[in-house]
Amino acid sequence: MLATLSSRRFDDPSWVFERKLDGERLMAIRERATVRLWTRNRIDVSASYPEIVDALSAFDSAKDWAIDGELCAMRGDQTSFEDLQKRMHVTNARTIATAGVTLAFWAFDLPRFDGHDLCPLPLTARKDALRDAFSYSPVVRFSEHEEEHGLALFDQAGRAGWEGVMAKRAASTYQPGRRSPDWLKFKVVRGQELVVGGWTDPQGARSGLGALLLGYYDGDELQYAGKVGTGFDEATLARLGTLLAPLARAENPFTEAATEIRKASRTSPAQTHWVEPRLVVQIGFSEWTGAGRLRHPRYQGLRDDKDAREVVREQPRPLGP
Asked: Which NCBIfam families would you find in this protein's record (predicted)?
């Protein structure tokens, strides 16, 4: 079940409000004695997060369950998507042990428990079951919520440096895979996922690549959103180069003409390289321009949990009661 971005903040007794977490959305599933972690696009990432799997394996009050949650790298009470990148795709035990990243899986919904489908139940009933069924720890945490008072929680989010706030209709059923107006998100910090459609050569002392050429889907068309050339370190540049190399293609994947993109990115044909639009990245930015381009974009990390064809331009709408 996916949330819809909203610009309308509100109080309402028929809604509950939670902290919006900046991490990787995962579904934890137990079948008999085996626990696995799955991304939204059905990739098994259990081997990358053994401490989460071990902690969830102790949740043995039922033979099977499915917990919807967010995996976060923690710096004290703050989440760090940058730190989480150090653990994504990593399965080597020594590298995991020396990464110095503290992980926490925040559980916020329970679609299935002990052979029972809980999806038709109201959200508050599912959250009550989730809270009561397990014992939590710093490794696996229960995502608390506030009833009715969304405005106060949004103010708290701004003071605490959270990414934002989630608003969920208390009576909402769980609708797998569907983006629903019963779940809303309000962002304090602007950012969203975008698709990489190309890259440019580096300038000066930089190695690997200069900037990523970004876009989003509007129907079947990949719309150009601009380039990002900040937020990389040497290790990130090397990793992106490795991931992009096998995706190389001769044709421009964007609807905008290649000449226009090169003009906007100030590159020549020889300095511009196109790729199959499969890689999804997280980008922070200050705003969208009137021409539909990102202003002050900065690279924040890879998104393994998002399929490229699901990436659209997020437009806040005045949704809510």
From this structure: NHEJ_ligase_lig
How far apart are the C-alpha atoms of 37 and 26, rounded to whole Å?
6
How many Å apart are CA 2 and CA 4, to the nearest integer? Answer: 7
Single-letter code of the amino acid located at 228: V
CATH of 22-142, one of 3.40.50.300, 3.30.470.30, 3.40.718.10, 3.30.365.10: 3.30.470.30
Catalytic residues: 20
**Quick one: CA torsion of 124, 51, 233, 273, rounded to 10 degrees?**
-70
Q: Can you name the CATH fold of 191-310?
A: OB fold (Dihydrolipoamide Acetyltransferase, E2P) (2.40.50)
* Of 206, 239, 211, the residue nearest 227 (C-alpha): 211
DSSP code at position 292: S
DSSP string, 182-226: EEEEEESS-EEEEEEEEEE---TT--S-SEEEEEEEETTEEEEEE
Going residue by residue through the chain, which has 321 residues, state the pLDDT in tens, using 9 for 90 and above: 999 999 889 999 999 999 999 999 999 999 989 999 999 989 999 999 999 999 999 999 999 999 999 999 999 999 999 899 999 999 999 999 999 999 999 999 999 999 999 999 999 999 999 999 999 999 999 999 999 999 999 999 988 888 899 999 999 999 999 999 999 999 887 889 999 999 999 987 778 899 999 999 999 999 999 999 999 999 899 999 999 999 999 999 999 999 999 998 888 999 999 999 999 999 999 888 888 999 889 999 999 888 999 999 988 877 777
Q: How far apart are CA 89 and CA 201, in angstroms?
A: 26
CA distance 25 to 318: 25
Radius of gyration of the chain (CA): 20
Per-domain residue ranges of the chain: 1-20+146-189, 22-142, 191-310
